[in-house]
Amino acid sequence: MNRWLPRTYLTLVYLLLYIPIAVLVVFSFNDSRTGYEWGGLSLRWYEALFNNRAMVRAMWNSLWLALSAATVSTLIGALTALALHRYRFRGKNVLNGMLFVVMMSPEIVLAISLLAVFLLVGLQLGYVSLLLAHVTFCLPFVVITVMARLSGFDERLPEAARDLGANDFTMTRTVLIPVIMPALLAGWLLGFTLSLDDVVVSTFVSGPSYEILPLRIYSMVRVGLKPEVNALGTLLLAFSLVMLILSQWILLRSKR
Amino acid sequence: MKQTLLTLRNLTKQFDGKKVLDALDLDIFDGEFLTLLGPSGCGKTTLLRMMAGFEHPDEGSITLGGQDLTYTEPEYRPLNTVFQNYALFPHMSVFDNVAYGLKMEKRPKDEIRQRVEEALAMVQLEDFMRRKPHQLSGGQQQRVAIARAVVKRPKVLLLDEPLSALDYKLRRTMQVELKRLQRELGITFIFVTHDQEEALSMSDRVVVLKDGLIQQLGTPREVYERPANLFTARFVGETNFFPGTVDNTNDDDTITVDVFGLKRTFRKPDFSVSPGQPLHVLLRPEDIRVLAPSDEDGVAGKVVERNYKGSTLDSVIHLDDGTEVLASEFFDEDDPTFDYRLGEPVRVSWVDGWEWLLPAEPEDVPEEDAIDA
């Protein structure tokens, strides 16, 4: 009996986690018009999805936004982490702590304050405002990921490079960046996912000129759940799985 | 023949108000194997890092062959370092690690390949060029680190406790190999260690450091047989300190000293002595002779510990007044008096002329703490 208890428990936990996903995937291939009964296998919702031009555009918008937000925040975040790691200065601990404050504070607070700032400076809501907002909330995650990697970084490596004749810039290019590359990739991926599925902040700072996927889905669902959404969800799921496998593969390769 | 290559003058460095180096002067000869020996915190690593260019002195200068290097950045110094934990670039193959320094010099590809192969052959790693550092054993990583540093043909090779992470047997092998490399390359090695055995067996000269000050500079033999002070005597090898009092100074350049009530005659030391003056009689464990209790010579005591070491038999003997004596005797099965049981009474003596005398120092006690720390 003692052997069965943990097994049952684990099974329940995993069922809880995966049943909704399984339902979504199965019903994305459902031929029936309503989402509650099985009408046979079909790809019609995928077809409908790709014929929905607004949806496809929102998808591309979202991908482009996530790509640019992740890249910008990785660039800024990596340099911030390096500065925080490398230099000793007054107020460093406060700065460190402030990263966590942004990370932990309710997203709605960030959303309202960002909107207030954009309105104050008269920035038109659209791609630029979304990008700025997404970079803002991705940044602490990137900094913390990179700093975690740097804390295990052998301080003798840059010295060894200098000793062998590399100047500071060459050392950074040939030793420092390659060694922290896995953290940069992890930070980038984290930023990418955070940006791709953000609803709260995006709701506040997006404008009609640049519609993104989560908001599009949200408005679709409000007028009734269409099976197209299941197809979209399945595609997104497949995409994140590929990204996950890719990132693990890169990590493994870099360890070799 | 001995030409000074590296000149250190008045080097002073403080960290957070604590003096790590205190007006240190040192001349290092071209082609010698010099060891910086001392307990942790004695300033030996700081001194090495200063020569490499990772630290700059508060005062003083470093000159290499007439060229001032005191504030030169590490990348412009003709010195290379072997780091304590090797500091191999984990993302590069063995070949790329060794080639790194030559690539920085923008050498042609063919030359790089040839020199890297030579350097790796020198440390017997030519078959491991394509491996990554983590696929190598500790000893192999150590060899790569050495190859990476010597491939640039530096004037001086700095080694920061390079063998401390290796196990005993491997350490012995690497010691021999480092000596061989130094002879073959003919470049100056400056070797930092806290292991006195390593220092004695490898060096041409040893610098004993404590609290940023040079305690003694000399050949391994000088440092071991004629320590300049109590610190060196205690730090380098094991020593018995017997308290003595000068009884008489004789005309024939000898003095008579009262040790444990025995009147012994010693060579007159370098420092001035006068009757009644306290001093230390230093005797290495191998200078001690353990005699049968019936013997007339020596001081009475009893054996409290015996360690059979193969070639020697090491024993600890407590004299009647409580003094602990370490004795190390070569194994001689034919000697009937050799094998003593624990608790057995014996008499302790030594070979006259093998002793070394040092003046009594007032600060004997705090020094003992410094060694334990």
UniProtKB/TrEMBL annotation, chain A:
Listed transmembrane segments: 12-29, 63-85, 97-121, 127-148, 175-196, 229-252
Membrane topology qualifier: Multi-pass membrane protein
Subcellular location: Cell inner membrane; Cell membrane
Domain ABC transmembrane type-1: 59-247
InterPro entries associated with the record: Bact_Polyamine_Transport, MetI-like, MetI-like_sf
Keyword annotations: Cell inner membrane, Cell membrane, Membrane, Transmembrane, Transmembrane helix, Transport
Residues spanning the signal sequence: none
Keyword match Membrane: yes
Family of the protein in this entry: Belongs to the binding-protein-dependent transport system permease family. CysTW subfamily.
Protein name: Spermidine/putrescine transport system permease protein PotC
Protein's organism: Marinobacter fuscus
Classification lineage: Bacteria, Pseudomonadati, Pseudomonadota, Gammaproteobacteria, Pseudomonadales
UniProtKB/TrEMBL annotation, chain B:
Record PROSITE patterns: ABC_TRANSPORTER_1, ABC_TRANSPORTER_2
GO molecular function terms noted in the UniProt entry: ABC-type putrescine transporter activity; ATP binding; ATP hydrolysis activity
EC class of the enzyme, as a word: translocase
ABC transporter domain residues: 6-236
EC identifiers of the protein: 7.6.2.11
CDD domains: ABC_PotA_N
UniProt keyword annotations, A-Z: ATP-binding, Cell membrane, Membrane, Nucleotide-binding, Translocase, Transport
Top-level taxon of the source organism: Bacteria
SMART domains from the UniProt entry: AAA
Lyase keyword on record: no
Entry similarity comment: Belongs to the ABC transporter superfamily. Spermidine/putrescine importer (TC 3.A.1.11.1) family.
Protein name from the UniProt record: Spermidine/putrescine import ATP-binding protein PotA
Species of provenance: Marinobacter fuscus
